[in-house]
């Protein structure tokens, strides 16, 4: 998975599947005080500018205001031009849809930089000169993910930024030899991040959010440590990965356990019974975490499908 895909995928997964995480983020960036249960109305991310440029990050309404958040993992000298173009397109679309084409409200927008350096500005600005001699200054906020400590993320409930926290160790990781086994600063940060996540989720009884965010954090850390297998495994353990079992991994483990149970019994019906037990255990696991019934049926069907495929291969 290429870099822009993994970071974009994690960002969009949270923005569109865990939109409530955006509320503390917006409060922090724009100085708002929206309650955590405030209603978010997400707009289609299939906006298009007059030049045909796709706006594919997140646009939503919170309270009476429209917000637009762009995520950048690399520097872009044309970012302010892109932002004014995107914001104009969003404002125009909203104005036309509301029947008020003679007045436009620009969204409150910001760019989330996952990496930054000394030259990264705190605000993107561009002066717009009108033909009558008037002008106005377009500005959009810049959020630097790496400027927040782990304690900041936990205390301010900025869970939206947690999956990207370990990116601050990229330079340290790049200097490591492929067979390196020591990266004490990184491992300490993994443990610290896990604690912060636990305090922000498990202490409030939100086990499902804990598991979902931990999965995204591990996806990013796996990518960052893709050239360091031993460190990748250590990072997983430091973050609780030794007890974390992603859903597809659990399905595969239960399937294998079912096959082993069948082998010990030495008969086909024993193996089928083991597969049924695995599917039942997996179903109960998902129900306990509030997963939608339709998704549970699909997951259980996948367990049975793998069992049938395995049985078919054995008979060929």
- Give the low-confidence spans: none
What summary fits the major beta sheet?
6 strands, mixed
Label the overall shape.
Answer: globular
Helix content: 40-55%
Give the termini separation.
Answer: 35 Å
The helix-strand sequence is HHEEEEEHEEEHHHHHHHH
How many helices? The count is 11
Mean pLDDT, as a whole number?
A: 82
Radius of gyration from the CA trace? 24 Å
> What class would the helix/strand composition place it in?
alpha/beta
Oligomer: single chain
Q: What number of structural domains do the residues give?
A: 3
Walk across the major sheet and give the strand order: 1-4-5-6-8-7
Q: Name the beta content range.
A: 5-15%
DSSP E strands, number: 8
Protein described:
The protein is an alpha/beta fold and 316 residues long. It has 3 domains: 3-147, no CATH class; 150-238, no CATH class; 247-315, no CATH class. The protein has 11 helices and 8 strands. The chain has helices at 3-17, 22-30, 79-97, 150-155, 170-174, 184-201, 207-224, 229-238, 247-265, 268-288, 293-315; strands at residues 40-42, 47-48, 54-55, 58-62, 65-72, 108-113, 123-129, 135-144. A 6-stranded mixed β-sheet has the order 1-4-5-6-8-7, sandwiched between helices. It has a two-stranded antiparallel ribbon with strand order 2-3. Helix 3 (79-97) links the parallel strand 5 (65-72) and strand 6 (108-113).
Main attributes?
3 domains; 6-stranded mixed β-sheet; alpha/beta; 11 helices
Describe this structure in a few short sentences.
With 316 residues, the protein is α/β, with parallel strands linked by helices.
């Amino acid at each position: 998975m290429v870099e822009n895909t993994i970071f974009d995928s994690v960002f969009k997964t949270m923005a569109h599947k865990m939109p409530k995480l955006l509320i503390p983020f917006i409060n922090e960036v724009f100085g708002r005080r929206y309650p955590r249960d405030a209603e978010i109305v997400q707009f289609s991310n299939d906006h298009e500018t007059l030049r045909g440029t796709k706006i594919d990050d997140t646009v939503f309404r919170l309270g009476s205001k429209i917000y637009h958040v762009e995520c950048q993992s690399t520097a872009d000298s044309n970012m302010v031009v892109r932002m004014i173009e995107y914001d104009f397109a969003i404002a125009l679309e909203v104005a036309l849809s509301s029947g008020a084409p003679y007045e436009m409200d620009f969204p409150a927008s910001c760019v989330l930089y996952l990496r930054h350096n000394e030259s990264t500005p705190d605000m993107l600005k561009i002066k717009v000169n009108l033909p009558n001699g008037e002008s106005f200054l377009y500005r959009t906020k810049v959020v630097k993910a790496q400027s927040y400590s782990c304690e900041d993320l936990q205390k301010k409930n900025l869970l939206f930024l947690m999956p990207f926290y370990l990116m601050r160790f990229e330079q340290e990781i790049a200097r490591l030899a492929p067979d390196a086994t020591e990266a004490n600063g990184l491992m300490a940060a993994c443990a610290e991040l896990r604690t912060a996540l636990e305090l922000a989720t498990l202490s409030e009884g939100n086990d499902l959010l804990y598991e979902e965010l931990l999965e995204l954090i591990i996806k990013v850390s796996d990518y960052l440590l893709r050239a360091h297998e031993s460190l990748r495994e250590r990072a997983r353990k430091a973050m609780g990965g030794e007890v974390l079992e992603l859903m597809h991994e659990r399905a595969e483990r239960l399937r294998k356990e079912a096959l082993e149970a069948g082998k010990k019994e030495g008969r086909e019906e024993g193996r089928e019974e083991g597969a049924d037990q695995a599917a039942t255990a997996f179903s109960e696991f998902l129900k306990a975490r509030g997963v939608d019934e339709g998704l549970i049926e699909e997951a259980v069907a996948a367990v049975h499908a793998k069992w049938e495929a395995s049985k078919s291969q054995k008979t060929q």
